Amino acid sequence: MTASIAELLREATARLQATSQTPRLDAELLLAHALNWPRARVLAERQYHPSSEQAATFAALVARRSQGEPVAYLIGRREFYGLDLEVTPATLVPRPETELLVELALAEARRLLLARGQVTDWPALTLADIGTGSGAIAVALATHLPEALVYAVDLSAEALAVAGRNIARHGLQGRVRLLHGDLLAPLPEPVDLIVSNPPYTVYAEIAPDVRAYEPRLALDGGPNGTAVYRRLLATVPAALRPHGALLLEIGAWQGHTVAELVRAALPDAEVQVHQDLAGRDRVVVARRAGRQAAERPIGV
């Protein structure tokens, strides 16, 4: 007889202690995947004995995780903002801290929708997720903003294929449009919100396990981590409507630097740096100046 779920989890947790900051959670997720069960069932049926084939599958997954391979790639999915998303090695693994970017973008979008209600001839609210990867941000925004059109842009065709499947999984075809290309260049029109979690790390300083598995295109921010921000901001003024907002995820050390870059690119904007739950700088928001809604409709 094979070991019980309780025994398998105990052994796997011990093995993953040296690799993971969440060894027990990793073990539970990997075993749930091997059994094709919800994680809640794994927790509930601790005395169940998996088959030898299931136990072998689990052992192979644990071995790969012990080498640093992300759990999301091993099981092929990740939860983000309450949504189940497909994830592959072609895409960055969505991080919990990026949910702050989504929350702030939703707040800006609702501000614009409220203003739009004062004028009857404004066009639909348009958003752009630049560097969409798995489509996590675009899917979250479109799910919570049924009135909006979201452009999801990425330079990687492989990442866009994953994003397309996530869009279809959540029934958002038609409201999230995939665009292949570099930064803002593929956008067919100016938009109300530009949202981006661009590469902002210094590649040589990234943890070895992250460098080994996650795509460099989504990580490498150049020699000082600001290369992509500078290229993006060079074209933001023409792509962002006068009343709109730009939201950028940043590294914890980049608040002042990126805020100053944004102020230089958008001198008419009010710029704020928002911190995450850990008190680290995480998102720069630039709300562009514009006339009052009653004076000037969007796009005019």
Characteristics:
300 residues, alpha/beta, Helicase, Ruva Protein, domain 3, Rossmann fold, 2 domains, 7-stranded mixed β-sheet, two-stranded antiparallel sheet, 18% strand, elongated, disordered C terminus
Which helices and strands appear, and what pairs or packs with what?
Layout: H1 5-16, H2 23-35, H3 39-44, H4 52-66, H5 71-75, E1 77-80, E2 83-86, H6 98-116, E3 126-130, H7 136-144, E4 149-154, H8 157-169, E5 176-180, E6 191-196, H9 208-213, H10 227-239, E7 240-249, H11 255-265, E8 269-275, E9 281-288
Parallel strand pairs: 3-4, 3-6, 4-5, 6-7
Antiparallel strand pairs: 1-2, 7-9, 8-9
Helix pairs in contact: 1-2, 1-4, 2-4, 6-7, 10-11
Q: How does this model look, in words?
A:
Mean pLDDT is 90; it is low at 291-300. A 7-stranded mixed sheet has the order 5-4-3-6-7-9-8, sandwiched between helices. A two-stranded antiparallel ribbon has the order 1-2. The chain has helices at 5-16, 23-35, 39-44, 52-66, 71-75, 98-116, 136-144, 157-169, 208-213, 227-239, 255-265, and strands spanning 77-80, 83-86, 126-130, 149-154, 176-180, 191-196, 240-249, 269-275, 281-288. It folds into 2 domains: 5-75, Ubiquitin-associated (UBA) domain (Helicase, Ruva Protein, domain 3, Orthogonal Bundle); 98-288, 3-Layer(aba) Sandwich (Rossmann fold), CATH 3.40.50. With 300 residues, the protein is an alpha/beta fold.
